[in-house]
């Protein structure tokens, strides 16, 4: 996939315009200075549009190298999806399970081939983190259905 | 001056009592543990452990806190260097060259110089605090809203002009960071801005979430890509200790970073993160080979790390001379001092000199303790890198996510960090620099506050921003830094 600076200029312009409109449409402040919350966003929105126009008009030298490769980008997207699923799974499945599963799947995505090692390392590691942070540093991590049975 | 010196000796005599040395050791140990976990950061870690100081003498309390503080800062640098995992905004700068050094097998020297640089910066800062402390505090007071705004504009301009290959892309990254800072509830008016109907966003966009997303997560995307293409190389550790040449190379950067950091740290309202960014820009600007920066230049680690440490000491100035906590860390210290029965005020220097110098001495002891504790650990830390990437990378992601989660206890932050990871990946791919986003996000709130305060004072006329000499100088410098290099080039071309 090739995306030149010209295209980025247009995208950034759009971001700036959207940001500006969203800012102007804010409800007026009931207290304090009514225009206060608008000053800074307006400056930012206008500057972003300015930068976008600049990039679109003067994109600089073109590179012919494709930036995102067809072979490797799907893998990146796969990890991206895994991370999103992991984020959603933590409060739902509990930290210990979701983390073991995530470490296991990711290590396979990254080239681990031994099932035994995969399961062992991901479970031991997740349990270690879990104990360290919950017990020693008392950081609240979400507990799933099974962990809440065991101890509290 | 003789009196000051006697007070300092007295301060040290307290800090060197065996009990207090034990506290310093414990503080450094716990602090390092906290620092290795991204998300909590020095101020958060200190606040969390404040109950521990209850009922202790002021000196012991401060020594424990100082230990935690230094430990957390150093722990943060460790993960930044080894894993590209910045634990707080200031360590973002350390990742730029520190992680590149680690990739080239020079993690050991990077970790050593971070510790040594911090130590030297701490030592010099104590001396600076003694000699130029009081007059500096008065200079810092001249910084009203307009001057603070000018300083931040200057800070952003140095970073955006130096970070990337293209000036305009640096500017885009800066504005993006400032835009992220406007997300959330606007405190003076209570209006929600840019929250897109998601209530959790009212709290705003946390710096840790952005730093971990943009730097750590995107780095792992990059690594996965290299892995898939078969170009990822296992890091080979070539040497653990720093060589004399490395040290001499970085000595200048350490000294410059120290002075810069001390001054910036003493200015209330200019987040002391700015100090590390300033130092990095300065080193790159005046280096003979600026192209080495971002590729594992040891000065790019030494300067910012020293600046960060000196800024922490400089930030004590407003607290000690004026009774004003000017940064989050000093705010926690302020609270801790109140708890043990000391009220920071402008009269502290006259009324309780032993507290001030005890504090300075204990900060210093914390510094030494950290050096003793951590230099032997460098070898152990470096060994982390020999874990195969297919295990190391998932583990880094998981640890990073614990840090992100601990910020607000919300899974939404995890999603945001993932999204920013993708944004960071695309920005790297299309050659947008990442560091300005973080500085923009850190300074956004402060900048907006200062510009609004200034406009409120002047009744809405923007002229106030350009009235004082300090502000004018800073604006001129900001413009020069942005357009200067290209102007020079044009001049040279027209001559030849």
Describe the structure.
The complex is a heterodimer of chains A (152) and B (496). By secondary structure, chain A is an all-alpha fold. Chain A folds into two domains: 5-57; 73-150, no CATH class. In chain A, 70% of the residues lie in helices and 0% in strands. In chain A, helix 4 (95-109) runs antiparallel to helix 5. The mean pLDDT of chain A is 79. Chain B has one domain. Chain B is built from 21 helices and two strands. A two-stranded antiparallel ribbon of chain B has the order 1-2. In chain B, a hairpin with a 4-residue loop joins strand 1 (184-186) and strand 2 (191-193). In chain B, helix 4 (58-83) runs antiparallel to helix 14, helix 4 (58-83) packs parallel to helix 16 and helix 8 crosses helix 20 (435-458). The mean pLDDT of chain B is 81.
Task: Sum this structure up briefly.
The complex is a heterodimer of chains A (152) and B (496). Chain A has 2 domains: 53 residues; 78 residues, no CATH class.
Chart the SSEs and their pairings.
The complex is a heterodimer of chains A (about 150) and B (about 500).
Chain A: H1 5-24, H2 36-57, H3 73-93, H4 95-109, H5 115-136, H6 145-150
Helix pairs in contact in A: 1-2, 3-4, 4-5
Chain B: H1 2-15, H2 18-36, H3 41-48, H4 58-83, H5 91-103, H6 107-141, H7 145-163, H8 167-181, E1 184-186, E2 191-193, H9 207-229, H10 244-266, H11 273-286, H12 299-314, H13 316-322, H14 328-339, H15 348-351, H16 353-374, H17 378-383, H18 389-408, H19 411-429, H20 435-458, H21 469-495
Antiparallel strand pairs in B: 1-2
Helix pairs in contact in B: 1-16, 2-4, 2-16, 3-4, 3-14, 4-5, 4-6, 4-14, 4-16, 5-6, 5-12, 6-10, 6-12, 6-13, 6-16, 7-8, 7-11, 7-20, 7-21, 8-20, 9-18, 9-19, 10-11, 10-12, 11-12, 18-19
